[in-house]
Amino acid sequence: MARKQIKAEGQDRRAQIASAFGEIEQSKIFLDKRTESAAVKMDIADLLKDIIQKQLRKDYDPEVESNIFINPERGDFEVYILRKIVQEVDIPAIEISLDEVRKIDESLDLGDFYEEGPIRLEDYLTRKSIQIIKQSVQKKVRDLERLVVYEECLEKVGEVVAGEVYQIRSNEVIFTYNTSKDHRVELVLPKSEMMKKDNPRRTPRMKLYVKRIEREKAKVRLDDGGVVEKEKPDGGMKVIVSRVDDRFLYKLFEHEVPEILDGLIVIKGIARVPGERAKVSVESTSARIDPVGASVGYRGKRIQSIVKELNNENIDVIYYTDEPQIYIARALQPAKIDPLTVHADIKTRKARVMLKPDQIKYAIGKNGNNIHLAEKLTGYEIDVYRDVIDKSLEDPTDIDIIEFREEFGDDMLYQLLDAGFDTAKKVLKAGIEEIEQALLGPAKPEEVLIFGKGRKAPFKPRERKVTDEEKRYWRKIAENIYRTVKEQFSDSDFRDLIDDAGDRETVSLSADE
C-alpha cells in the first residue's frame, strides 16, 4: 500500500513539473505567429532556470550549482547537478572524487566540474518547491499575456472600434472587443461618456472611441505619511471608451470621407453637444475639391451614416476661413447673418453681432446650443444685438430682451423669442400667464407604444399632461421674469404701458406682488 502511494506521488510530481513548462505552450499569446513568441519563451526560460536553481539550493544544498538546458520549441528541459572533482570528498552532495570520476570520464581532472544528470527533480525537490516552480511560470505567462494585450490596446487609443454589449451596470456598460490577434478585451463605457439617446439594450453593437487605458492601481505610502494611488506595472488594465468625445466625431468623418484621410480635406474645428447638435468646420487643400460637398456626400449619404451612428445628432458642416467676421457668421447658421454686421476684436476674442429680430432665436438656438457651439468653434465670446432696420419705428424707451441674457439664460431667452417676446415691453404686455405658456411650450402629444416594441399606436396619442408641481415651478419662473423686466421701468412708465395695453388684470397682479 505504501509503495503504491509513493509511486502515485512520484507520478503527480512529474505531472506538475511537465505542466510547469507546459504553461508556455498552452498560452494563447504563443499560438499567434505574429507574436514574438521566441523572445517571450526565452524570458520564461530564464525565469524557470532561476527558480529551479533557487529551489535546489533550498531543498538540496545551499552551495549547489546546476546547468539547466531548456528547449522552448518542445517545451521540455533537463537539469544537471555540477559536482566538483576533488581528491577527498567532504560534501557528497556537491563533490565527487577523482578516482570515481575517472571511471566515467578520463578527460576530467581535479578542479573540474562533473555534470551529473539529467536528474529527476522529484528526487531532489519537495512537493512544495515543485508547486512554486509551476506557480511562478503561470504568473509570468499571465503577466506577459497582459503585456501583449496592453501593448495592442495601446495602439488602439485614439481609434474607433466596434464593441458588443457584454454587461450593463448602473454606472457603466461593458463591451467586448476582439483584437486583430484574436485577444478578447473588455471595453468600459462610463455613464458620463454615453449620449442621452444611447440604448445598449436595443443596440447591442456600437462604435466606440478608445479614450485611454488605465492600469490597476495600488495605494502607496509616502515618506511623509501620505497615501497616493499608483498604477501597477503588471496590474490588470481597464480600457475606457467614449461616445461623447469630439475626437469620436472626427474619426467618424475620417472613416466616411476618404479625402480627410488622404489630407485633401482638413477638419479645422469641432464643437458638440453630444446627441443633439454639432458643428464641424472644414477646409480643402485642393482647389478642385469642395470640402463641404465632399463631407456631406452625394445626396447626403456620407453625413447620413454619421448622423445615424450618433442617434440623429444634427450636424452642421461649414467652410473654414481666416476672416473672423465671415467665420462667426457661418458658425451661427442657421441664422442668416451679413458678415458686415459682425464686429470681431482679435485681441480680446470678443464679437458683437447685429441681427434682424426674426433671426435672433435661430442664432441662439434651443437651449442656447447654437450660440454656445459657435463660440466653442470660433474661440470668440459672441454677443448678439437686435438690429432694427427702420429706426423711426423703434421705441427709445424699450429694451431688447437679449439684454437679459445673463439673468434668464439662453434656454429661456430662446423660448421667449420663439413666442415673439423680443422686447421688454412685449413681455410686460403679455403678462405672467402668457410668459408661463411660452416657457411650457405647446403641449406635445405622448407617443403610445404597443407592447414596448417601439411601434406607434394606430389611434390618436393623448396630449402630454403637466403636473401641478411643474405648473407651480414654471409659474414661479414666469413671475420672476416678469418682476425682473418690470424693475427696469419706473412706476409711471409701467402704468402708462399697461394703460396703453388696456390690461387691468396685469396691473392688479403686479400690485398684489
Identify the overall geometry.
Answer: elongated
Q: What is the count of β-strands?
A: 17
The unreliable regions are 1-7, 29-35, 445-457, 503-513
The CATH topology of the domain at 12-139 comes to N Utilization Substance Protein A, Chain:P, domain 4
Radius of gyration: 38 Å
How much of the sequence lies in strands comes to 15-25%
On the 0-100 scale, what is the average pLDDT?
A: 78
Helical segment tally? Answer: 17
CATH H-level superfamily of the domain at 12-139:
NusA, N-terminal domain
Kindly, what is the distance between the CA atoms of the first and last residues, rounded to a whole number of angstroms? 103 Å
- CATH A-level architecture of the domain at 12-139: 2-Layer Sandwich
What is the SS-derived class? alpha+beta
The main sheet comes to: 5 strands, mixed, barrel
Summary, kept brief:
One of its GO terms (molecular function) is RNA binding. With 513 residues, the protein is of the alpha+beta class.
Question: Can you walk me through this structure?
Answer:
The structure is a single chain. The protein is an alpha+beta fold. Among the domains are: 12-139, NusA, N-terminal domain (N Utilization Substance Protein A, Chain:P, domain 4); 157-244, Beta Barrel (OB fold (Dihydrolipoamide Acetyltransferase, E2P)); 394-443 and 464-500, no CATH class. The chain contains 17 helices and 17 strands. The protein has helices at residues 2-26, 37-59, 98-102, 121-124, 127-156, 246-256, 258-261, 291-296, 301-309, 324-331, 360-364, 369-378, 405-418, 424-440, 468-486, 491-501, 504-512; strands at residues 65-71, 76-86, 95-97, 113-116, 160-168, 172-178, 184-190, 205-215, 217-221, 227-231, 237-242, 265-273, 277-284, 314-319, 342-345, 350-355, 381-386. A 5-stranded mixed β-barrel has the order 5-6-7-11-8. Strands 1, 2, 3 and 4 form a 4-stranded mixed sheet that branches. A hairpin with a 5-residue loop joins strand 6 and strand 7. Residues 1-7, 29-35, 445-457 and 503-513 have low confidence and may be disordered. This is Transcription termination/antitermination protein NusA. InterPro entries: KH_dom-like_a/b, KH_NusA_2nd, KH_sf_prok-type, NA-bd_OB-fold, NusA_N_sf, S1_domain, TF_NusA, TF_NusA_bacterial. Monomer. Binds directly to the core enzyme of the DNA-dependent RNA polymerase and to nascent RNA. Belongs to the NusA family. Residues 158-225 form the S1 motif domain.
